[in-house]
Specification:
This protein is an alpha+beta fold and 112 residues long. The chain is built from 3 helices and 4 strands, in the order βαββαβα. A hairpin with a 6-residue loop joins β2 and β3. The N terminus is likely disordered. It binds zinc ion (ZN). The site of zinc ion has 8 residues, from loops.
Length: 112
């Protein structure tokens, strides 16, 4: 794999990119999480910051490995959708964005 993250509009999560292990990594690299139901094809693209915030508020493990098992389709109820990383500006979910200061605090903790 010689292509950089910005050259690839979409990356499948199997195998996982070595440099993006969790939702925080995805958010700092401006990747949204695309969720596609394997049964009915329902597709939602989550803004990475919003999904990070959603998981942080609920104490959900943010590791990308195993994350699919935590999703359940809102249309047909199927669990374990296909996850992939896409450009963040394509998000279409209605999850609230994180508090700006909370996000900045998380980023500064990560860099120190
Ligand atoms: Zn479905």
């Amino acid at each position: 794999m010689s292509r950089g993250p910005l050259e690839a509009p979409e990356r499948d999560l199997s195998p996982l990119p070595y440099d993006i292990r969790n939702l925080f990594d995805a958010a700092t690299r401006h990747y949204a999480t695309k969720v596609v139901c394997k049964r009915c094809g329902w597709t939602v693209i989550f803004d990475p910051h919003a999904l990070w915030w959603f998981c942080k508020c609920r104490g959900v493990d943010m590791a990308l490995r195993g994350l699919a098992g935590r999703f359940r389709c809102t249309v047909c109820g199927q669990r374990g959708p296909k996850l992939s990383l896409v450009r963040a500006n394509r998000s279409n979910s209605s999850l609230p964005m994180p508090d700006y200061r909370e996000w900045k605090r998380a980023v500064s903790r990560y860099r120190n």
